Amino acid sequence: MIYVIATTPMKLENKDDFIKGHKACTAETLKEKGCISYDGHVSVNDPNLYVVVERWETRDDLNAHGRAPHMKVWREYSSQMKTAPTVIEIISDGKVEKF
Length: 99
Fold this sequence. Notes:
This is Antibiotic biosynthesis monooxygenase. This protein is an alpha+beta fold. The chain is built from three helices and five strands; from the N terminus they run βαββααββ. Helices cover 34% and strands 34% of the residues.
């Protein structure tokens, strides 16, 4: 199993639109092969930080997710709503990769 933690600092003025847009992305992601869970939340420690917690059956499933058409749409939509790039941590086989 592959775990992913993705954290995105949101612009305060775009927070509601960011969250609404991510909910649409989530609905499509949950239909993908190998998606066990995919949940987005506002951080309890920072109201402008959005945290996505994902679980995937395989790394191939996760890689396919990154290439999915709705992810391209999401990246383009959300790009102007962030104060910094998303940090992605992939956890598998006892190791953590950070992007």
